[in-house]
Design goal:
273 residues, Arc Repressor Mutant, subunit A, Beta-Lactamase, 2 domains, elongated
C-alpha cells in the first residue's frame, strides 16, 4: 500500500494544532487506502496500510458503512460504494462537463422544440445539472439540483446500464422500490432485464414510470469509458407514442450525447499532454 496513507494518518507536524481533527484525517486515510486498492481489503490489510489498530478501523468502517460510503463483502472485506463518486460530481459539473455540454443541449432543445435535461448519478438518485424546458409536463417543477429516483427515470436507467455490474447491483440493493405509477418497476429483478436491453441498444426509455403523462428517452455521456452523466428528451404522452419517441427523438439525442462525450475525451487528451 502507498506510504502516503501512513503519513496522513499520523501527521506529527500538525497533531498539536488545536484546529486539526486527527479522527477526520484517519477516516480520510481509510477512504484513500480503499480507493488505491484494486480489490476489497480486510481489516488486517487496512491496519497494515494505515497504521491504525483493528479496533479503531472497526469503528471507522462501521460509521462509513452506515453512511453508505463503504460496504462489507461476504468475505468480510471492505470496499468503496458508488456513493463516494458523488463527492466529486460537483467538481466535474462545475468545470468541463457542464461547460462542454450546455451549448449542445440547448441546441438540441431548440431543434426538437422539446425539453432537454442532463443529470449525473448520486447514490440511488439522479441529480439534475442542466435543463432546457419548453413546457410544464410534471406536476412538480424540476430545477437544477433536483433529484429523482434512479430506477424509474430514463437517465438513471441508462447510467446504471453502462456501469460495471458490481456497481449497479450495489446501487439497486439500496433502492427503495416505491411504485410511483402503474408502470414503475417494483424490484431489481424486473429492472435488470431492462438494463440488459438498454446496454445493448444504447438508450433508455421512461414510459410513464415516473409520472403518468410523461415519456422520455436518455443516452449516456462517457468520459474515459465511464458513464459520468446522461442527457434526455422529455415529452408528453399525448404528443408522442413510445414508437414516435424512439424513431424521431432518440437518433438526434444519441448524436448529441456522442458529441459531448467526444469533446470530454479530447479534453482528457489535452490534459495529458
Amino acid at each position: 500500500m502507498p506510504e502516503r496513507n501512513k503519513l496522513r494518518t499520523h501527521p506529527e507536524e500538525v497533531r498539536n494544532e488545536r484546529i486539526f481533527i486527527t479522527s477526520l484525517a484517519r477516516g480520510l486515510s481509510l477512504l484513500e487506502t480503499l480507493a488505491d486498492s484494486d480489490t476489497p481489503l480486510t481489516l488486517t490489510q487496512l491496519s497494515r496500510a494505515t497504521d491504525m489498530s483493528k479496533a479503531t478501523l472497526t469503528r471507522f468502517c462501521h460509521t462509513l458503512a452506515e453512511l453508505g460510503y463503504i460496504e462489507k463483502t461476504a468475505a468480510k472485506r471492505y470496499q468503496l460504494t458508488p456513493k463516494i463518486l458523488g463527492l466529486g460530481y460537483g467538481v466535474i459539473c462545475g468545470y468541463d462537463l457542464c461547460q462542454v455540454a450546455k451549448p449542445y443541449l440547448r441546441d438540441l432543445s431548440r431543434t426538437l422544440g422539446e425539453t432537454v435535461n442532463m443529470a449525473v448519478l448520486e447514490d440511488t438518485e439522479i441529480l439534475y445539472v442542466a435543463r432546457y424546458k419548453t413546457e410544464q409536463i410534471l406536476a412538480t417543477e424540476l430545477h437544477i439540483g433536483a433529484k429523482l429516483p434512479v430506477y424509474c427515470t430514463s437517465m438513471g436507467k441508462v447510467i446504471l446500464a453502462h456501469l460495471p455490474e458490481d456497481e449497479y447491483r450495489s446501487i439497486l440493493r439500496r433502492v427503495g422500490w416505491v411504485p410511483l405509477t402503474h408502470n414503475t418497476h417494483s424490484s431489481a429483478e424486473a429492472l435488470l432485464t431492462e438494463l440488459a436491453i438498454v446496454r445493448q441498444q444504447g438508450f433508455a426509455v421512461n414510459d410513464e414510470e415516473l409520472s403518468v403523462g410523461l415519456r422520455s428517452a436518455a443516452a449516456p455521456i462517457f468520459r474515459q469509458g465511464r458513464p459520468i452523466a446522461a442527457a434526455n428528451v422529455a415529452v408528453p404522452t399525448i404528443r408522442y407514442t413510445r414508437e414516435a419517441l424512439v424513431s424521431k427523438l432518440v437518433p438526434p439525442l444519441i448524436n448529441t450525447a456522442k458529441q459531448i462525450s467526444l469533446l470530454l475525451e479530447q479534453q482528457v487528451g489535452v490534459q495529458k499532454v
